[in-house]
Specification:
The chain is an alpha+beta fold. It has one domain. Helix content is 41%, strand content 21%. It has 2 helices and 3 strands, in the order E-H-E-E-H. It has a 3-stranded antiparallel beta sheet with strand order 1-3-2, covered by helices on one side. Helix 1 crosses helix 2. The longest helix has 25 residues. The protein is elongated, with a radius of gyration of 14 Å.
């Protein structure tokens, strides 16, 4: 069975999950399956060289991207341009 992980939509940004999924195309076929409360991410055709760390690295990458996107959105709402410091 292909590895998969469920990410709760209240914690993870949908756009971040999709963006990171596309970045992992070189090491796996990543499919994002949305539902009402979760995004299920399935990994198929995984490169054996990264199989043991793929899901953990993917989740860390998505979390970091979610934080960046939320910080940018908050900065935009505050009117300071959404830049990073």
């Amino acid at each position: 069975m292909a590895p998969e992980v469920s990410l709760h939509r209240s914690l993870y940004d949908d756009g971040a999950v999709e963006a990171v999924a596309s970045q992992y195309a070189g090491v796996a076929r990543v499919t994002v399956l949305p539902s009402e409360h979760e995004l299920t991410v399935r990994f198929e055709q995984v490169d054996p060289d990264v199989a043991d760390v793929l899901v953990d690295h993917f989740c860390n990458h998505v979390l970091a991207e979610t934080v960046v996107r939320r910080n940018q959105a908050e900065a935009t709402l505050r009117g300071d341009g959404g830049g990073t410091t």
